[in-house]
Amino acid sequence: MMDKQFHILLIEDNPNNIKLMVMLLEQQSYKVTVAVDAESGIEQAKAITPDMILLDIQLPEMDGMEACRILRQESKLTHTPIIALTAFAMPGDKERILSNGFDDYMAKPFNYREFLKLVEQLLNHG
User: Fold this and answer.
1) DSSP E strand boundaries for 21-117
2) What is the model's pTM?
3) Pairing mode, if any, of strands 7-11 and 52-56?
4) Which of 36, 106, 101 is nearest to 69 (CA)?
5) Which CATH architecture has domain 7-125?
6) 76-98: string of b/e by CB count within 10 Å (b at 16+)?
7) Domain limits of the chain?
8) Cβ-proximal residues to 26 (8 Å cutoff; 6+ apart), any chain
9) What is the largest CA-CA distance in the chain?
10) Digits of tens for pLDDT over the chain (126 positions)?
């Protein structure tokens, strides 16, 4: 059993991905807050100061890269692990994503065991 219930903010616009990730994370006793676009995700992040942010790269209006840069400017979110969720898995994409302030990235569709392992590693690293 965990001493602290980690709070994860999921910023994702695909209902199927939201359903799957919320289910997986809640099964691990994580508290999950969902935002379906970058702007509301940024507002949520400022309001709740989550332990981790899972951020889709391809979002309507503002993409995840831009959202990550904005989140990193918030002093209380500077050290919050942010994982990019992306369908981009071409050579060079990972470097480009990480250079934008993300801590790691998970290519979609992802292996749910690898996904949970990455979440756990980053949460327990801090």
Assistant:
1) 31-35, 52-56, 82-86, 104-107
2) 0.93
3) parallel
4) 101
5) 3-Layer(aba) Sandwich (3.40)
6) ebeebbbbbbbeeeeeebbeebe
7) 7-125
8) 32
9) 39
10) 446 799 999 999 999 999 999 999 999 999 999 999 999 999 999 999 999 999 999 999 999 999 999 999 999 999 999 999 988 778 888 899 999 999 999 988 888 999 999 999 999 875
